[in-house]
């Protein structure tokens, strides 16, 4: 009985291995079956292995520690950065004071000539009066005096000598007496020479 059984199995194996070689159709069918089986195994194996390796839901894997959620306090308010502005620094050293000096003779002469032209306003127009002052007056002061009505000037003559009250290297304060009162005149040094920059009638 064992000999017959082995012979029968061998005959079955020969039929199975010989079947693909009987015709091209059998061979193609066999190749397709083998390819489909390999493809099926290739798709199922990763899923089967992955499901076996993955731990059940809600449990941690071996040797791993579940991370506890960090607890934090109330969120800190956002900080705002105030831009720093550079403010101008204060002058630490005082402005240099004018240097005292004896009154310049030319400054006293210009003050006298200006006062003489200033009191000469009778019988002349405002334009003529200003033109007589132009040679002794700064352009800025001449523009201020263009709004002056010379008919309002009470003095008509210079009655005394010019006297310096304050004298510096670049400016001289001069008093000139007239028949209408003393006129205080500020004479300054300019690139064009000494010129009257301001006056006040007493």
Provide structural commentary.
With 202 residues, the chain is of the alpha+beta class. It folds into 2 domains: 2-49, no CATH class; 105-201, Nuclear Transport Factor 2, Chain: A (Roll), CATH 3.10.450. It is built from 5 helices and 4 strands. It has a 4-stranded antiparallel beta sheet with strand order 1-2-3-4, with helices on one face. Strand 2 and strand 3 (181-190) form a beta hairpin. It is rod-shaped. Residues 55-71 and 85-94 have low confidence and may be disordered.
Number of domains: 2
CATH architecture designation of the largest domain = Roll
Order of helices and strands: HHHHHEEEE
Return residue spans where pLDDT drops below 50 for at least 5 consecutive residues: 55-71, 85-94
Question: Which CATH class of the largest domain applies here?
Answer: Alpha Beta
How many strands, which pairing sense, and closed or not: the largest β-sheet? Answer: 4 strands, antiparallel
Number of strands: 4
Mean pLDDT, rounded to whole units? 78
Roughly what fraction of the amino acids lie in strands?
A: 15-25%
What topology, given as strand order, has the largest sheet?
Answer: 1-2-3-4
Task: Sum up the overall morphology in one term.
Answer: rod-shaped
Structural class: alpha+beta
First-last Cα distance: 160 Å
Total helical segments: 5
- Range of helix content: 25-40%
Under CATH, the topology of the largest domain can be stated as: Nuclear Transport Factor 2, Chain: A
Secondary structure layout plus pairing:
Layout: H1 2-18, H2 24-53, H3 105-119, H4 126-133, H5 139-145, E1 163-167, E2 171-178, E3 181-190, E4 193-201
Antiparallel strand pairs: 1-2, 2-3, 3-4
């Amino acid at each position: 009985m064992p000999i017959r059984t082995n012979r029968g199995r061998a005959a079955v194996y020969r039929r199975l291995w010989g079947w693909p070689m009987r015709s091209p159709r059998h061979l193609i069918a066999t190749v397709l079956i083998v390819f489909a089986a390999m493809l099926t195994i290739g798709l199922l194996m990763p899923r089967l292995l992955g499901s076996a390796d993955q731990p059940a839901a809600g449990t941690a894997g071996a040797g791993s520690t579940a991370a506890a959620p960090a607890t934090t306090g109330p969120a800190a308010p956002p900080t705002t950065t105030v831009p720093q502005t550079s403010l101008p620094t204060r002058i630490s050293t005082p402005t240099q004071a004018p240097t005292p000096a004896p009154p310049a003779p030319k400054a006293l002469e210009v003050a006298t000539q200006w006062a003489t032209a200033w009191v000469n306003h009778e019988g002349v127009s405002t334009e003529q009066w200003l033109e007589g002052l132009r040679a002794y007056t700064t352009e800025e002061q001449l523009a201020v005096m263009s709004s002056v009505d010379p008919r309002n000037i009470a003095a008509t003559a210079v009655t005394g000598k010019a006297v310096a009250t304050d004298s510096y290297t670049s400016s001289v304060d001069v008093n000139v007496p007239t028949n209408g009162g003393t006129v205080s005149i500020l004479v300054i040094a300019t690139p064009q020479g000494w010129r009257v920059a301001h006056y006040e009638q007493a």
